[in-house]
DNA sequence: CGATCCTTTGAAGGACGTCAAGGTCTGTGG
DNA sequence: CCACAGACCTTGACGTCCTTCAAAGGATCG
């Protein structure tokens, strides 16, 4: 269910969306804001829009009938999410923190893609990037140990963060559900990495992390 | 490395490949055969061809540096695999049993896709199908128990098999590496499902399986 | 500054992995 | 056709890594 907090219409281009079509500047972007924890769309809902994170963070997850949750991806500033080829969303998307998104109608994108090969090509390469991420995550979930998973997660977040210290928007529970672990195991793994000098906390919160030794962090990744 | 055993050139159409382009009948399909266990292509090798299983079965997997293996998918008769958007394969593909494949040059496919919107669309929907499979597998690997995983695997194979009894081409090791388990755990889960009347072995081999109660099998899947 | 949520840490339990042994199936060669 | 070798599968005993349960220490927000 879409919780509309702000609906200021902002005439804009879709270039920011990365579809690379400079020729369709007429499409307007809408800006929405979601409070922490609110749902952006639900699994199996019709996929009418494509989203881009303007500020904040989003989690995409699937639930099992008994409440077990698997987060498939986190979407950070600049990321596009909710792009479907079929007409249903395959994940539920929620704002991890207060989040602003841009969104465009999927329909308009598909109309463009039908004639513009560049846009069509970009749709494919975005889907491929998602596939690639999922494939790597399969290996993590199927074959890596707890410490390896946490190290891989931190390496991924570090890679996606420009600043020197990361401010993780998601809770230990989110991290655990992303890595197929429990919060306690995540906490223990982080503690261990901290003891071994890989990272340290910054300030007076456990979500601000600085990587002290990237090479040492890398050494925990058995991939490649 | 491609191990060419048979290279009879067969003039053919690419319709069988399911790209839905009746207008490009000039492209020839090559038929290759791979012996049991031989590599079809390796991870990070240039992706020059797209493959379709004509007979047999193929496993796609990634290896960790210490030999841990995660199988991402099994490709059975009719399945297309090795379709990449980038120019490298992201998995290693091996013949599970003696396998015959058709293959076409990726280049020719890409040339067609650039002008033919139908082919381009099919490339996208095939990639999306792969993505969807990977996403469901994430949930299995991250959040399902051993019995749930094996039940889901059997349900998947059952769904993809037309015959009443399945003849699994892959070993317990393959199944284990697909499900993120060990062979012993897979064996125990199968035994348990057999005790509970979900399935039974057929003939004098443990790879011929008949599902006795599909509804009971379904009941082991906590998804949806 | 109190209430609540989140995180950490310890202790105990359990599901799956490891190790080991024996049974089954398959292919090969006598 | 049988004998043997080797690979594969099953089953049991035991170990271990992760989970569960519990409690206490931060962090956040009113």
Automatic annotation (TrEMBL), chains A, B:
Keywords: DNA-binding, Nitrogen fixation, Transcription, Transcription regulation. GO terms for molecular function: DNA binding; DNA-binding transcription factor activity. Residues 28-130 form the Cyclic nucleotide-binding domain. Pfam families: cNMP_binding, HTH_Crp_2. Signal peptide: none annotated. Residues 144-215 form the HTH crp-type domain. One of its GO terms (cellular component) is cytosol. SMART domains: cNMP, HTH_CRP. Coiled coil: none annotated. The keyword DNA-binding applies. This is Transcriptional regulator. The lineage of its organism: Bacteria, Pseudomonadati, Pseudomonadota, Alphaproteobacteria, Hyphomicrobiales.
């Amino acid at each position: 269910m879409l919780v509309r907090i702000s609906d200021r219409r902002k005439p804009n281009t879709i270039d920011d969306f990365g579809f690379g079509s400079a020729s369709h500047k007429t499409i307007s972007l809408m800006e929405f804001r979601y409070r922490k924890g609110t749902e952006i769309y639900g699994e199996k809902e019709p996929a009418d829009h494509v989203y881009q994170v303007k500020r904040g963070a989003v989690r995409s997850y699937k639930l099992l009938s008994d409440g077990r949750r698997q987060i498939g991806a986190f979407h950070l500033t600049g990321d596009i999410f909710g792009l479907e080829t079929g007409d249903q969303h395959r994940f539920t998307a929620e704002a991890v923190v207060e989040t602003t998104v841009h969104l465009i109608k999927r329909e308009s994108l598909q109309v463009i893609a039908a004639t513009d090969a560049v846009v069509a090509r970009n749709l494919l390469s975005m889907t491929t990037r998602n596939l690639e991420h999922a494939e790597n995550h399969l290996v993590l979930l199927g074959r890596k140990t707890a410490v390896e998973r946490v190290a891989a997660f931190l390496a991924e977040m570090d890679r996606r963060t420009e600043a020197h210290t990361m401010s993780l928007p998601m809770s230990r529970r989110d991290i655990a559900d992303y890595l197929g672990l429990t919060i306690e195991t995540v906490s223990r793994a982080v503690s261990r990495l901290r003891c071994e000098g890989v990272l340290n906390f910054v300030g007076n919160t456990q979500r601000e992390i600085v990587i002290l030794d990237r090479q040492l962090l890398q050494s925990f990744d058995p991939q490649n």
